[in-house]
Amino acid sequence: MSWWRRLITGSRMDQELDAEVRFHFDLLVAEKVRSGVSEDEARRRTRLEFGGLEKVKENCRESRGTMWVASVLQDIRFGLRQFQSNPGVTFVAVLSLALGIGATTVVFSVIYAVLINPYPYKGADRMVHVHVLDGTAFLTDLLLSSTQFQQFKNDRVLDGAIAVDKETMATGGDLPESVSAGYLSSNAFDVFGVPPVLGREFSEVDTQDALHPANVIVLAYPYWKAHYGGSADVIGKSLELDHANYTIIGVLPKRFAWWPTSDVYLPLRFSSDPNRTAMVFARIKPGVTYPGAQAELQASINELAKQTPDRYPKDFKIQLVPLNDIFVGSFAGTLFVLLGAVGLLLVIGCANVSILLLARGASRQHELAVRAAIGASRTRIVRQLLTESVVLSLAGGTLGIALAYVGVGMVARLLPSHTFPGEASFQVNLPVLFFATSIAILTGVIFGLWPAFHFSNPQLNAVLQASSRKLAGSVGSMRTHRVLIAGQVSLILVLMAGAGAAVRSLYQLIHAPLGYDPNNVGCITISLRDGAFMHWENRVTYYDQLRQKVGSTPGILSVAIAQTFLPPVSRYATSAEIRGSIGGSKLLTLQEVSAEFFPTLRIPLLGGRLWTKYETLHGAHVAVINLAMAKHYWADKDAIGRMIHVDALGSQTTWALAAPGNDGWVQVLGVVGDTPNNGLSDPVSPAIYVPYTLALSDGVDLVMRTRGDPLNYIRAIREKIHAIDADQTTSEVTTAEQRLDSEALSGERFIATVFLSFGFLGLALGAVGLYSVVSYVVSQRAHEFAIRMALGAGRAHVICMVVRSFAMALAIGGGTGIAASLALNKFLRQWIDGNVRDPLMLSAVILIFLSVVIVSSLIPARRASGIDPMQLLRTE
Which residue in 190, 286, 431, 518 has its CB near the most CB atoms, within 10 A? Predict the structure, then answer.
């Protein structure tokens, strides 16, 4: 049985106990024989004195166990003194383990919350959005009337379907507040399978009369906490919304945040009007594939479309989109790239610990030899080093766990809000924490014990006769150090190249041309009450009154109306037909605005003219296009006067009223400058601007340019709107700069921040590891350097010797890292929009890395060159 197995099983202890007991037994027998007692009688008497061999062995065992515990405590105390005598090494080793454990756990916990378990709903992985495609462009989510929804939800490939709508309502009292109200079909909570934290949820019992459901309401968790202080006696109370009283019957759990995220949820009121529609979501039956379900539902919806053909474009297609894809999309790949980056950081940290512990262990060779010379067994020495390694690893693991719990909350706050669902719960993932901690602790134990394997049974005479400063076993230990450093360098360069690419990408986005001026531009959303202004003329008049009234506020320079998002994104794209062109339907970005939109955002008019106020109020069939569209479709020809059919303008619903005579055809009046409509990183798409009155929605944005910060005008704006309609609710004012940051820069800023943090942490760990090894080499070769300098070698020669000993490892690691970074360029560009092959960026990364490496190497090398040869040789 090998020595380490005997250490674990304790068989050597039993053998030692047997030998010790027999020795004392024979000694007592011999004494009695010398006193004149026969040998048999002496053995009999001795057995009686011992009280049985097993009892003696048990007593010895207990004594030995107490001694073993005391010995372990002594090992721990000695190890702590060792750590105290080398605080720098201890601090760096613990921090390296902690950063690797903490960062890995944080990133995977975010991935788990956003990608693996983002929703609390039953069968969430089978829930889908049903998109309607207008030719090749996304038009809208599936919208169905009451009767159509009843047919749809019973489709044989579905395991459930719900209908949803949303409205902004106002509370009662002298100072009404806006409340976001979500309407859900009566079967919704059965489909979700999420029980309430208080009370109950509404069901089909509350909606027996689908046209007039019971006035019951369920509160969302944040609204309950904010407005009722989390009180349990809220059940049964009344809440006044839009001059009607609703009875609170339940409170939803914290993770329930179904889109559209709302403050309260009410039963959906269905209508016999075929134009009164609601958005539909579905859940596919287990075992049904997405292509199969999509083909089946396409046939079903084709039949439903025959009932209301005006609401569906020609040759429309449906597409099933998994629930989480809308929120996460391509950001999922970015998160996995971050996981790879933090994995590199964990490996770098473990390599750093390995380098430090190997260097520290080799420097203790003389100490281990002395311990062996005065009687310490190999088992005893191994146990001492094992105890020290475990204590060091546990310290790093404990700090790593603390960093993980703190870091998850920090990263969750840094994540762009539009990249994860509101239901996501960011908590430390325990299996990953256990895995990362185990890897880091195992690394510490293995490389902490490595010196024991080499030095716990040394050639005592050779070691004790040698100087404690002389490098023994240098070939093997130095080879290991060089391999670890080369691997660490390559990983650091890959990490830094990714960080550089992300930062470079963010810099380019920040300095990208916008084509408009976002400074001092604010936006406020106006949502009409359900059933308000149902005639086109009345709605046009009301919106124009709001625009003029808000525009009369002192300090507001101009006001426009828009049914689109502010740049750098647009609301949606649509297929279109250009009269006289060849090639079928074209894909255009549709922007529905008033003519004041262009001077308010300071978008230049490049040719032709804008439509007039008269044309806006009468729903004229006119348009302007952006420069990208003019160049794409007409090149050197004049685009003014061209006729375009915009497919998305023709349909009419209760929430989008088409202008009289609107057939979708518009005439181009002018060309305006380009503004980003697909974010800042993608090229500007061909875009067409039409009067917002052509298809008048029940919600618009007031876009205003102010003198100073738009947020300073919130109260004045609301007073103006309240003067026209006391029941009109408004959203919070947001600025164009806020939207630019959240919709175009927040994702890139997050990626750049995290990659840059990981890159510099890895660089710092690598620098400390290199510094430690070079310092170790200097200390071990101090005698050699003293002799060389005594024989006439200069300081520069000594410095070159030190640096040259690791130059090959650094060169190999650097070359491997650069090659790996270039090879990964295509993969990285797909997820972080950065170019690792950018010469300027790559040069900056290499320059920073070389600077750190040179400083890390030269500091101990200069210390070596400053040795006083005579003083050192006198001490040897």
Answer: 518
Amino acid 530 reads D
More confident position, 494 or 21:
494
Q: Identify the weakest region by mean pLDDT among 47-61, 396-410, 526-540.
A: 47-61
Q: Shortest CA distance to 438 belongs to which of 346, 328, 314?
A: 346
- Number of helices and strands in the chain (H, E): 27, 26
Integer angstrom CA distances of residue 115 from 291, 323, 405, 458: 22, 11, 19, 54
Q: CA 407, CA 436: separation in Å to the nearest integer?
A: 15
**Are 837 and 823 spatial neighbours (Cβ–Cβ below 8 Å)?**
no
Percent of the chain exceeding pLDDT 90 equals 28
- 132, 812 contact by CB (below 8 A): no
CA–CA gap between residue 460 and residue 248 (Å, rounded): 84
Query: Is the overall model pTM greater than 0.70, yes or no?
Result: yes
Q: Is the pLDDT of residue 11 over 70?
A: no
Helix (H) or strand (E) holding 646: strand 643-646
**154-158 average pLDDT score:** 93
Sequence-distant (6+) residues with CB within 8 A of 770 are: 485, 806, 853, 856, 857
Here the tokens at position 92 are 């760096």
The domain spans of the chain are 3-85, 124-325, 331-511+744-875, 529-727
pLDDT in tens, 432-446: 888 877 877 777 777
Closest CA to 94 of 408, 490, 486, 390: 390
Interstrand relation of 687-691 and 586-593 (parallel, antiparallel or unpaired)? parallel
CB-based contacts of 529-534 (< 8 A; 24+ apart in sequence): 529/167, 529/169, 529/242, 529/727, 529/728, 529/729, 530/167, 532/698, 533/698, 534/654, 534/657
3-state secondary structure of 201: coil
Chain-centroid distance, C-alpha 746: 12
